[in-house]
């Protein structure tokens, strides 16, 4: 009798098969005398399309809405139907007596496996593999401590509720908007509140009225002090600023107070996925989705980091005994002295690091016990790995200690302030560059100060008046948008609901936020200029068209809160789905009754070759393209494509224009080259570089052999002398 192991992806399935000793590799699965290991390609089964409930849903008509099927159906995804049929056959094999679910350890992973098993009508006994890393050790331990699948039944039910609610709300509102305004419009429970935050920020910026203000600083002997009135440095009374500048000239500052205090700066906490995506965007400009892909590679392929889709910044107590082995594994390259220092002093943990009550499905992202070969990582993978390792080392390092000096002075009843900082113990800060910024921003300018005593007088050498204007709020980057999605409480005024938002960890989940942002780019609601996000006309208009309750982040947080309660068996799924059906119907009715209008402001004079409607010009994330204005028509034509190839003149990324054999690489510096010719030249250059690298490698190998021979001869001669 055999056990079938169902993984989520081929790469993971093959690793599980290798560790379990499955030497017989077949098409789509691996096998030995005890196990049959197979895999999905993500979802193999999904919720059925509306047309499978009723033929009239094949055409989009407002009269047919809302669509509220009593029982939701499942369908096999056509693109991966072959693999589903294979998995179904393996599930139904007579020699397979039990199943081990080995998909990703989370809500969505549970859904992937259970839908396949349900669709295959399989009722064999099931167990669950629940691991946070893909190392051989973690896999073996996981199989040695399998958990009953029934334990994860509530998690599966919450996943089903999430999927069905998204179907009911998303498809109904999307069809209602598209039919009402004859435009390709879509809405959803997470994407719409996220878009609403971007649009609201744009409105703030557009209506912002800058105000002029001045600041006054006085230069003394060896340091600078700043004028403040009631704690504020900005002077909006420009006449007063002018008067101050003249009255302070040739005056004296009397030091009224000198305060020296020892400060302690704790290290930042470990990474969860959102915090890691935020830092990667700030420092490297990586999108949230790209960071997740890199993390997935470091987790699955290289096995050097733990499970990426974590929403916790803490470790569970069972991880503590493994910390020494993890430190030993990363004691290489620039990390070696820090790892050895921690091991020498002894590993110390506290409630900021280890707290079982704050770990749900997975602990924070940390290195595994697997020894890493840095040369095997790509440049971008190395960037993400470096962030995680430095944060891991920082958390286990000493606190940062410094002495802060704050000086208060006065001149003619005008008050001035200055502050300085002397580092006593760099601690965890020694892992980072001086300009690395963490959550705590400096309140005031820090400078080196001379020894200053109370009662001393200093002559004012120069009065510096600077004029400036108040600045509008900054547009979102992916980093700041992720923060807003995680902590949207500031958009709610009611104190009770603020807490609900915080308890629900914001809108979306760590696993879905990156996909939500990507979808907003894909449907042309937003675009990126540099690292800054701008809402497009289509997105701005949509927010004015959707029902108001769908724009609020509060609603989404309440949903997530209810889904969590379902997974904890505190709420019945039937009750939640009844609410969702009623809610979807109310949204459709709101769209039907709306008197708003929609205007295509990106319509061209070109007509669609397939249906004759006018084409729209849109800026996608990868470049410009034309799409048909008729929602039922799927015609698309690329105008430009942003490539990863670099200009040989200025080294900026090249843009591809034209179609098929007429494609050209172009650059803002004026460079132009035929697409095929440039690629051929690039290929030849890479081949040449490869030969040069090979020769250099061979030379190094020869030198190493000579050095070994030399060392051996010296050792032999020394032995002979003895």
From TrEMBL:
- One GO cellular component term noted in the UniProt record for this chain: cytoplasmic replication fork
InterPro entries hit by this protein: Topo_IA (IPR000380), Topo_IA_2 (IPR003601), Topo_IA_AS (IPR023406), Topo_IA_cen (IPR013497), Topo_IA_cen_sub1 (IPR013824), Topo_IA_cen_sub2 (IPR013825), Topo_IA_cen_sub3 (IPR013826), Topo_IA_core_domain (IPR023405)
The EC code for this enzyme is 5.6.2.1
Annotated Mg(2+) binding lies at 8, 104
| GO process terms (BP) | DNA recombination; DNA repair; DNA topological change
Q: Which parts of the sequence belong to the Topo IA-type catalytic domain?
A: 152-588
Residue span of region Interaction with DNA: 186-191
Q: What class of enzyme is it?
A: isomerase
What sequence ranges are listed for the domain Toprim? Answer: 2-135
- Is the keyword Isomerase assigned to this protein? yes
The entry's keywords: DNA-binding, Isomerase, Magnesium, Metal-binding, Topoisomerase
- GO MF term set: DNA binding; DNA topoisomerase type I (single strand cut, ATP-independent) activity; magnesium ion binding
Q: Which reaction does it catalyse?
A: ATP-independent breakage of single-stranded DNA, followed by passage and rejoining
On whether Lyase is a keyword of this UniProt record, the answer is no
Q: Indicate the annotated site residue(s) for Interaction with DNA.
A: 60, 167, 175, 309
Q: Which residues form the active site?
A: 307 (o-(5'-phospho-dna)-tyrosine intermediate)
What cofactor does its activity depend on?
Mg(2+)
SUPFAM superfamilies under this entry?
Answer: Prokaryotic type I DNA topoisomerase
Family in the record: Belongs to the type IA topoisomerase family.
Sum up the protein's function in the record's words.
Answer: Releases the supercoiling and torsional tension of DNA, which is introduced during the DNA replication and transcription, by transiently cleaving and rejoining one strand of the DNA duplex. Introduces a single-strand break via transesterification at a target site in duplex DNA. The scissile phosphodiester is attacked by the catalytic tyrosine of the enzyme, resulting in the formation of a DNA-(5'-phosphotyrosyl)-enzyme intermediate and the expulsion of a 3'-OH DNA strand. The free DNA strand then undergoes passage around the unbroken strand, thus removing DNA supercoils.
What name does the UniProt record give this protein? DNA topoisomerase 3
Species name for this entry? Longicatena caecimuris
């Amino acid at each position: 009798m055999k056990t079938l192991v169902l993984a989520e992806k081929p790469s993971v399935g093959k690793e599980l098969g290798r560790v379990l000793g499955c030497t017989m590799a077949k098409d789509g699965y691996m096998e030995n005398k005890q196990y049959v290991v197979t895999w999905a390609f993500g979802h193999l089964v999904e919720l059925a399309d509306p047309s499978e409930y009723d033929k009239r849903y094949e055409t989009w008509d407002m009269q047919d809405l809302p669509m509220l099927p009593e029982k939701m159906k499942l369908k096999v995804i056509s693109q991966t139907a072959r693999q589903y049929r294979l998995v179904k056959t393996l599930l139904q094999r007579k020699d397979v007596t039990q199943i081990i679910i080995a998909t990703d350890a989370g809500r969505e992973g549970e859904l992937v496996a259970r839908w396949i098993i349900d669709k295959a009508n399989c009722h064999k006994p099931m167990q669950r593999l629940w691991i946070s890393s893909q190392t051989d050790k973690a896999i073996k331990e996981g199989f040695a401590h399998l958990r009953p699948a029934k334990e994860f039944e509530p998690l599966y039910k919450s996943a089903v509720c999430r999927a069905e609610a998204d179907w009911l709300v998303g498809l109904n509102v999307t069809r209602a908007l598209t039919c009402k305004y004859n435009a390709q419009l879509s809405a959803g429970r997470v994407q719409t509140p996220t878009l609403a935050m971007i649009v609201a920020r744009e409105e703030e910026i557009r209506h912002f009225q800058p105000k002029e203000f001045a600041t006054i600083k006085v230069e003394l002997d060896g340091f600078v002090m700043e004028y403040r009135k009631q704690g504020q440095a900005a002077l909006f009374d420009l006449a007063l600023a002018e008067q101050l500048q003249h009255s302070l000239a040739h005056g004296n500052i009397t030091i009224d107070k000198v305060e020296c205090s020892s400060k302690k700066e704790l290290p930042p906490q470990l990474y969860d996925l959102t915090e890691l995506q935020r830092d990667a965007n700030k420092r490297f400009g990586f999108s949230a989705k790209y960071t997740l892909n890199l993390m997935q590679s470091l987790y699955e392929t290289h096995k050097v980091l733990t499970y990426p889709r974590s929403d916790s910044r803490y470790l569970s107590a069972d991880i503590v005994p493994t910390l020494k082995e993890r430190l030993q594994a990363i004691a290489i390259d620039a990390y070696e002295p820090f790892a050895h220092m921690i091991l020498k002093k002894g590993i110390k943990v506290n409630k900021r690091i280890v707290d079982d009550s704050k770990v749900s499905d997975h602990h924070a992202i940390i290195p595994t016990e697997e020894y890493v070969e840095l040369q095997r990582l790509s440049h971008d993978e190395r960037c993400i790995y470096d962030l995680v390792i430095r944060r891991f080392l920082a958390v286990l390092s000493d606190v940062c200690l410094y002495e802060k000096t704050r000086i208060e002075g006065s001149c003619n009843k005008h008050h001035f302030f200055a502050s300085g900082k002397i580092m006593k113990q760099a601690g965890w800060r020694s892992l980072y560059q001086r300009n690395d910024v963490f959550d705590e921003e400096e309140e005031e300018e820090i400078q080196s100060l001379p020894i200053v005593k109370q009662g001393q007088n200093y002559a004012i050498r120069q009065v510096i008046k600077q004029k400036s204007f108040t600045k509008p709020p900054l547009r979102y980057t992916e980093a700041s948008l992720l923060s807003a999605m995680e902590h949207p409480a500031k958009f709610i005024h009611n104190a009770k609901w603020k807490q609900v938002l915080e308890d629900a960890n914001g809108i979306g989940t760590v696993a879905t936020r990156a996909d939500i942002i990507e979808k907003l780019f894909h449907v042309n609601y937003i675009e990126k200029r540099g690292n800054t996000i701008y809402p497009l006309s289509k997105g701005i208009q949509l927010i004015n068209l959707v029902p108001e309750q769908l724009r609020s982040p509060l609603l989404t947080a309440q949903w997530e809160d209810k889904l969590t309660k379902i997974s904890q068996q505190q709420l019945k799924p039937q009750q939640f789905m009844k609410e969702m059906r009623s809610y979807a119907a109310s949204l459709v009715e709101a769209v039907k009754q709306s008197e708003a209008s929609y205007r295509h402001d990106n319509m061209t004079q070109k007509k669609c070759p397939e249906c004759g409607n006018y084409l729209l010009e849109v800026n996608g994330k990868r470049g410009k393209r034309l799409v048909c204005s008729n929602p039922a028509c799927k015609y698309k034509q690329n105008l430009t494509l942003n490539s990863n190839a670099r200009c040989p003149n200025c080294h900026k990324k090249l843009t591809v224009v034209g179609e098929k054999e007429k494609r050209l690489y172009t650059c803002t510096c004026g460079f132009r080259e035929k697409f095929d010719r440039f690629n051929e030249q690039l290929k030849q250059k890479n081949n040449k570089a490869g030969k040069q690298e090979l020769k250099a490698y061979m030379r190094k190998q020869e030198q190493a052999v000579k050095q070994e021979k030399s060392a051996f001869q010296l050792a032999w001669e020394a032995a002979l002398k003895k």
